[in-house]
TrEMBL record:
Cofactor: Zn(2+)
Keyword Protease: yes
Protein name: Carboxypeptidase O
GO biological process assignments: proteolysis
Domain Peptidase M14 as annotated: residue spans: 6-282
Assigned protein family: Belongs to the peptidase M14 family.
Annotated catalytic residues: E248 (proton donor/acceptor)
Lineage: Eukaryota, Metazoa, Chordata, Craniata, Vertebrata
Residue span relative to the full protein: 56 to 341 of 368
GO MF annotation: an example: metallocarboxypeptidase activity
Lineage top rank: taxon: Eukaryota
Keyword tags: Carboxypeptidase, Hydrolase, Metal-binding, Metalloprotease, Protease, Signal, Zinc
GO cellular component: extracellular space
Length: 286
């Protein structure tokens, strides 16, 4: 069976996605919503009970940045956990009844594959599209281009705008730093529901800490990381999705992007509780 305590190649993850769909036809369907620069299909798993009435939804993407391998590992863990518990855990069952999960395990597929190529490419961050103008450089930072309309960020932009009315929550999974970031990346503007976002973020950090004792800081990027523009989390909030969070997973810098495989399971366990804390809050409020 699939080993969730190891990092997997894109081919393995694609096969795993097919398997999830095949084994859970009642609650999982896949959906292609864009193409990468290298012409791969960007695919999400839609998870939840089918319903005659329209449902609200939760978005989760992993692997915007190629080298952050723990992020796709988390998306896979999350899918495994909810599929393994919705029949027995009444809380997860209720989520399946009232919400759809839209989960993209690897958004930047081209970059992810490139980061698997060899030791010299392991730390690749961006997409693999060529730069514009006369620059010969390759790669677009997909988390700086959510207001400019190019590359792969476009597929997510289109999806979020098209589904904006039903999306309650946008979660984007990154590493590293152990942080829960709330909008915005700009130092002088704050979200209209900033206080509530901080409250929900702090509750998630407490849920994380309760699992293995790890501390995750909560705040806006300028307050606890650095100011920047064009992040997906900002775009989601600006578009009208009320709850938008960036999770920066382990660690705090010792191994940074090369998080050892023996930390996959504990990291995923704690962040699962953090994400569920956010999702349950949003579910109960709506
Ligand atoms: O710089 C980034 O894109 C993210 N950090 S990373 O080291 N994973 O590259 C931070 C994204 C935070 N985004 C918002 N909260 N807007
Ligand atoms: Zn990142």
């Amino acid at each position: 069976s699939y080993d969730y305590t190891k990092y997997h190649t894109m081919d393995e993850i694609s096969a795993w996605m097919n398997q999830m769909e095949r084994e859970n036809p009642d609650v999982v369907s896949s959906m292609i919503y864009g193409q990468t620069y290298e012409k791969r299909n960007i695919t999400l798993l839609k998870i939840g009970f089918t319903s005659a009435t329209p449902k609200k939804a939760v978005w989760m993407d992993c692997g915007i940045h190629a080298r952050e391998w723990i992020a796709p590992a988390f998306c896979q863990h999350f899918v495994k956990e909810i599929l393994g518990s919705y029949q027995t855990d009444p809380k997860v069952k209720m989520l399946f009844e009232n919400l759809d999960f839209y989960i993209t395990p690897v958004l930047n597929m081209d970059g992810y594959i490139y980061s698997w190529k060899d030791n010299t490419t392991r730390l690749w961050r961006k997409s693999r599209s060529p730069g514009t103008g006369d620059c010969t450089c390759i790669g677009t930072d997909l988390n700086r281009n959510f207001n400019a309309n190019w590359g792969k960020a476009q597929a997510v932009t289109d999806f979020l705008v098209a589904h904006q009315n039903k999306l309650l929550c946008y979660l984007t999974i990154h590493s590293y730093g152990q942080q829960i970031l709330v909008p915005y990346g700009h130092p002088n503007i704050s979200a209209p529901n900033y206080d509530e976002l901080m409250k929900v973020g702090r509750a998630a950090a407490n849920a994380i800490k309760a699992v293995h004792g790890k501390s995750y800081k909560v705040g806006t990027p300028p307050d606890i990381l650095y100011a920047f523009s064009g992040g997906s989390c900002d775009f989601a909030r600006l578009t009208g999705i009320p709850y938008s969070f960036t999770f920066e997973l382990r660690d705090e810098g010792k191994f940074s992007f090369i998080l050892p495989e023996d930390q996959i399971q504990p990291t995923c366990e704690e962040v699962y509780q953090g994400a569920m804390s956010v999702i349950n809050y949003i579910h109960d409020k709506n």
